[in-house]
Amino acid sequence: GQQLNQSPQSMFIQEGEDVSMNCTSSSIFNTWLWYKQDPGEGPVLLIALYKAGELTSNGRLTAQFGITRKDSFLNISASIPSDVGIYFCAGLKPAGGTSYGKLTFGQGTILTVHP
Amino acid sequence: EAQVTQNPRYLITVTGKKLTVTCSQNMNHEYMSWYRQDPGLGLRQIYYSMNVEVTDKGDVPEGYKVSRKEKRNFPLILESPSPNQTSLYFCASSFRTTGDSPLHFGNGTRLTVT
């Protein structure tokens, strides 16, 4: 199936540092989503992007929908220990009209924050 | 409380012994989906359902079956489990079948097939 390339695969940072991760694809997507998964739980939606070039913030998180519609970026500023987890990008290419179709996930970025 | 409930949370079984992982949502969601999570591969979609009695294959449907007889339930069936189906499984649901409706995930089922 279609694949999203997410990088980096893992990051080890100090508390207070900024974090950047991205997702790229050879295909165009109409929606980009960013999820976070805490240990032992299911992913939770952080940010949704619906328009090429869109820049959206959620607290210390900022995400952008790439102009080419083939990529997206997530930045976390001033990281704290509770930012630890796995971050997933997901791209949505509707099956037709406005139906949900299939959501494709990236491989995930494992973030570790050292106090 | 609005939630997606999966059972069981942990399951160890042997090759060939049929099993069912249940998924139920109490939010009247139209869309439901099953994913498996494996290290380095992220979340891969197994099956999804746009509505009652409507199911479609995802990216990795081989060895799995699903049914959607009622809106709230979307069980995942492994007729003859094999070791390569050892994985962490997530059920998810969404209110509408449009991209602006966020997916709500269950807490996962860790399956081990020996």
Q: Could you give the topology of this structure?
A:
The complex is a heterodimer of chains A (115) and B (114).
Chain A (H helix, E strand, L loop, with lengths): L4 E3 L2 E5 L4 E6 L6 E7 L6 E6 L5 E4 L2 E5 L5 E6 L8 E9 L8 E4 L3 E6 L1
Parallel strand pairs in A: 2-11
Antiparallel strand pairs in A: 1-3, 3-8, 4-5, 4-9, 6-7, 7-8, 9-10, 9-11
Chain B lengths: L3 E4 L2 E4 L5 E7 L5 E8 L3 E10 L2 E4 L7 E2 L9 E3 L8 E8 L9 E2 L3 E5 L1
Parallel strand pairs in B: 2-11
Antiparallel strand pairs in B: 1-3, 3-8, 4-5, 4-9, 5-6, 7-8, 9-10, 9-11
Q: pLDDT below 50 for ≥5 consecutive residues: which ranges of chain A?
A: none
Tell me what portion of residues of chain B adopts beta-strand conformation.
Answer: over 45%
- Residues in helix, % of chain A: under 10%
Radius of gyration of chain B in whole Å, from Cα? Answer: 13 Å
Beta-strand residue percentage of chain A: over 45%
Total strand count of chain A, please? 11
The termini of chain A sit apart by: 39 Å
Instruction: Name the average pLDDT of chain A.
Output: 90
Question: What would you call the structural class of chain B?
Answer: mainly beta
Oligomer description? heterodimer
The ordered string of helix (H) and strand (E) elements of chain B is: EEEEEEEEEEE
- Counted by DSSP, the helix tally of chain B is 0
Tally of separate helices of chain A: 0
N-to-C order of helices and strands of chain A: EEEEEEEEEEE
The main β sheet of chain A shows up as: 6 strands, mixed
